């Protein structure tokens, strides 16, 4: 029997692309900003987390039992994230290559104040775990499920209300983008105040919209969608580089609440949702990584920080072009994270049997 029979191949591929984009983006951040290609690559790697949010919205409202959703989220999402933070604390010195692995186990140097303050402030700003902000945001959205569910039901009035909120949120974000682009004196803050949702919730609502067959029929034509995707990401990368020259900072446009990133993420999701993956070769590879994507996401920053702190990596990549170093680093991080994720799944399988 096919172990992946119940999984949607298209969604698994999108999940894989999101996971790979996040890893490659974080690996890219290791290298200096002096390389122009970094800005271009970064523009095309920003869709990773938005794709995760869209997938969340795509499935979130299928099962409407809030209690079960909350229990599963705490058990399968939040607790593994907290364990990852604890592991980062215990093995911090080993990850930084200042102590060996066994010394960390023997000397259990845990900064409980830092760990607990990050958990109770619903944050993940501690070393090696900054990427876990996504997990805390994910849990917050699940906690808001009863409210969001009122908007995400296929009834005429609720459909209109949901689309109104989506449009209002996008307008507010566009206003913020325009203010930053043109550095205008007029303050768009009054519009932003009336923004009903953050970008994370917006992506979830868009994911729900994309789960409806009528929406997929409207957003069709992979050739046109690919052109829109390329234009949005190139334009966003260009704006970021202009922003860097004018203001000395390009972080604003390298963020998920940029309207161009919102458009390109929705378009990218639509492109891969329309592919006939079931007939493609390598379907099981897509499922393989999709099944491990959550755990790969959890641990990849710990792996990345360990790899870049190891002198052996720099010896192996000495005198090689930066782009080659970047590719090697991404492959190493993905490979080690995949092996560790497979081990975690194996351990979970053994524990479930006992």
UniProtKB/TrEMBL annotation:
Main localization, broad class: membrane
EC class of the enzyme, as a word: transferase
Transmembrane segments: 12-33, 39-61, 73-91, 132-152, 164-182, 188-206, 226-246, 252-272, 284-303, 323-347
Coiled-coil blocks: none
Subcellular location: Cell membrane
Family: Belongs to the acyltransferase 3 family.
Domain Acyltransferase: 9-341
Topology in the lipid bilayer: Multi-pass membrane protein
Keywords, comma-separated and alphabetical: Acyltransferase, Cell membrane, Membrane, Transferase, Transmembrane, Transmembrane helix
Protein name as annotated: Acyltransferase
Assigned EC number: 2.3.1.-
């Amino acid at each position: 029997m096919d172990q992946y029979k119940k999984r949607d191949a298209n969604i698994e591929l999108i999940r894989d692309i999101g996971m790979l984009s996040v890893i490659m983006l974080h690996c890219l951040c290791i290298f200096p900003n002096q390389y122009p290609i970094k800005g271009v690559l970064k523009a095309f790697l920003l869709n990773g987390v938005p794709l995760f949010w869209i997938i969340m919205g795509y499935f979130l409202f299928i099962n409407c039992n809030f209690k079960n959703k909350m229990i599963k989220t705490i058990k399968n999402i939040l607790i593994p994230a907290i364990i990852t933070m604890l592991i980062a604390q215990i093995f911090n010195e080993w990850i930084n290559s200042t102590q060996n692995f066994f010394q960390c186990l023997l000397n259990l140097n845990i900064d409980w104040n830092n760990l607990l303050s990050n958990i109770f402030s619903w944050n993940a700003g501690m070393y090696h775990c900054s990427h876990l902000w996504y997990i805390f945001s994910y849990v917050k959205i699940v906690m808001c499920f009863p409210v969001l569910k009122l908007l995400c039901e296929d009834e005429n009035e609720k459909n209109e209300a949901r689309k109104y909120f989506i449009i209002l949120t996008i307008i507010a974000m566009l206003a913020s983008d325009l203010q930053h682009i043109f550095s205008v004196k007029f303050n768009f803050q009054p519009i932003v105040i009336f923004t009903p949702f953050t970008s994370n919730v917006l992506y979830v609502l868009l994911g729900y919209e994309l789960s409806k067959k009528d929406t997929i029929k409207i957003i069709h034509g992979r050739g046109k969608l690919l052109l829109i995707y390329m234009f949005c990401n190139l334009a966003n990368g260009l704006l970021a580089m202009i922003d860097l020259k004018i203001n000395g900072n390009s972080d604003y446009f390298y963020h998920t609440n940029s309207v161009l990133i919102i458009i390109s993420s929705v378009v990218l999701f639509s492109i891969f949702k329309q592919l006939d993956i079931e007939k493609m070769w390598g379907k099981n590879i897509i499922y393989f990584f999709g099944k491990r994507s959550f755990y790969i996401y959890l641990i990849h920053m710990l792996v990345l920080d360990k790899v870049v702190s190891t002198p052996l990596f720099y010896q192996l990549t000495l005198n090689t072009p930066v782009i080659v170093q970047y590719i090697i680093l991404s492959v190493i991080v993905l490979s080690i994270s995949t092996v560790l994720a497979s081990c975690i799944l194996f351990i979970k399988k053994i524990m479930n049997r006992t």
